[in-house]
Automatic annotation (TrEMBL):
The chain crosses the membrane at residues 20-39, 82-106, 127-154, 197-220, 232-253, 316-334, 355-373, 411-431. The lineage of its organism: Bacteria, Bacillati, Bacillota, Bacilli, Bacillales. Its main location: membrane. This is TrkH family potassium uptake protein. Keywords: Cell membrane, Ion transport, Membrane, Potassium, Potassium transport, Transmembrane, Transmembrane helix, Transport. PANTHER family: KTR SYSTEM POTASSIUM UPTAKE PROTEIN B (PTHR32024:SF1), TRK SYSTEM POTASSIUM UPTAKE PROTEIN TRKG-RELATED (PTHR32024). NCBIfam families: 2a38. It is found in: Cell membrane.
């Protein structure tokens, strides 16, 4: 213990040479590398897998995506499944959160630099209260995951026995809460399409994990909607609206589709639409095969994966608040107003610039990846597009591309998954140097539209 403290102390006094975004990116790379080594061990798999597949699965789990070239439940042993579960947990809550947790356990003080790292990792505006937030995130996450596992056990234990049933409950609870999209069942959650317990539990886990930790903390401490911050108000209203619209759209669009909801009873149609309308935003777990969806539903699903869930959550995508800010900016422009106003609150200009930058960088990366995969993969365009957006949104849904990717295609998708997890601006700031210029240049005229 003393030697460990000496090492940590030495690390504290060593000059910090990396910017917070770059350091966080490096931490994720280290976790992916460790996961690759563990998943490649003979004890991890039923039959040997290639180094590339081990790297792909480790990247997919660490970025809480869920894309896999094969059925994970049939390929990995209990040890391998535990490794995947731990990678999902660390990737979802964040490497820095666990690092701070262990530093606190060792009785050390958290430095300003470490607080800045946590601020960057959680995407919060200031370092004030960030350590308290981290502690709350860990406690809340573990508690919610255990509650989710408890409810899932009511279905899995009678079917698989105590040991396997409890583990399956815990694995899928962690996968759902962290928006990972991994399932140990063949065909994801198809077997439980009309099961109320599984559907309600998993959707609750997905919603709680995707709405954002800061939002959850504020909702638990403030019970009046008007007293909530603008961010929380936007997230609550936006989540409710987009979920309801998505569920209704899937239900109506797929009601007579013989490849999705068509053959199901009315009750099962509701449960399938309910799950498919909420899960794709980042979770990627499915109760129906997304390959059977109509083109309109596939387009809707891609839009939801691109948007994602909430900031400071376990999800990917551009984030719901980013999407809503840009929509508000568009309406403000059409109305001829100067300020973007949401619920009688003006949105800072820098926030709008940040939102536009996030969407712009994201679209550029998606287009580059799409272009590369169109060259390397012999698959339909819509299948490749769906795969790229799923990887970017760390959603994990696939309509058949993952299992047939070439080695180059897997490398491209891994890059997109990494980009989607780290975030557009974080990754951009990792490789660029930010500067503050006080020079003001004269305006120039550029015609648009």
């Amino acid at each position: 213990m003393q030697s460990t403290k000496k090492i940590l102390s030495a690390l504290d006094v060593k000059p910090f040479t990396f910017s917070p975004p770059l350091f966080l990116s490096i931490l994720l790379v280290v976790i992916i590398a460790i996961g690759t080594l563990l998943l490649k061990l003979p004890i991890s798999t039923v039959h040997p897998i290639s180094w590339l597949d081990a790297l792909f699965l480790s990247t997919s789990a660490s970025t809480v995506t869920g894309l896999s070239p094969f059925e994970t439940g049939e390929t990995f042993t209990f040890f391998g499944q535990v490794v995947l579960m731990l990678l999902i947990q660390i990737g979802g809550i964040g490497v820095m959160s666990f690092a701070v947790f262990f530093v606190i356990l060792l009785g050390k003080k958290i430095s300003i630099r470490q607080r800045q790292l946590m601020q960057e990792a959680l995407n919060v505006p200031s370092i004030g209260g960030v350590i308290r937030l981290v502690s709350w995130i860990l406690i809340f996450s573990f508690a919610i995951e255990l509650i989710g596992a408890f409810f899932l056990a009511f279905r899995f234990v009678p079917e698989f026995g105590w040991g396997k049933g409890l583990f399956y409950g815990l694995f899928h609870s962690i996968s759902g809460f962290n928006q990972a999209g991994f399932s140990l069942f063949p065909g994801s959650m198809h077997h439980y399409l009309g099961d109320p317990i599984v559907n309600l539990t998993m959707v609750t886990m997905i919603t709680l994990g995707g709405i954002g930790f800061t939002v959850l903390a504020e909702l638990l401490s403030t019970h009046r909607f008007r007293k909530l911050s603008l961010h929380t108000q936007v997230m609550v209203v936006g989540t409710l609206v987009i979920n309801v619209l998505a569920v209704l759209a899937i239900f109506l669009l797929e009601y007579r589709n013989p490849n999705s909801l068509g053959p199901l009873s009315l009750g099962d149609k509701f449960w399938a639409a309910f799950f498919q309308g909420i899960s794709p935003r980042t979770a990627g777990l499915t109760t129906i095969d997304p390959a059977g969806l109509s083109q309109a539903s596939l387009l809707l699903t891609m839009l939801m994966m691109f948007i994602g869930a909430g900031s400071t959550s376990t999800s990917g995508g551009i984030k719901l608040t980013t999407f809503m800010i840009v929509i508000a900016q568009v309406f403000t422009f059409l109305k001829g107003r100067r300020e973007v106003v949401i619920n009688k609150r003006a949105v800072n200009h820098q926030v709008i610039v940040r939102a536009v930058s996030i969407i712009s960088i994201s679209i550029i990366v998606i287009l580059i990846a799409l272009f590369l995969l169109c060259i390397s993969e012999n698959q339909p365009f819509e299948v490749i597009l769906f795969e790229v957006i799923s990887a970017f949104g760390t959603a994990g849904e696939s309509i058949g591309a993952t299992a047939h990717l070439t080695p180059f295609g897997k490398v491209v998708i891994m890059g997109v998954m990494f980009f989607g997890k780290v975030g557009p601006l974080t990754l951009a700031f990792s490789v660029t140097r930010r500067s503050h210029v006080d020079i003001r240049y004269p305006d120039g005229e550029i015609y648009t539209g």
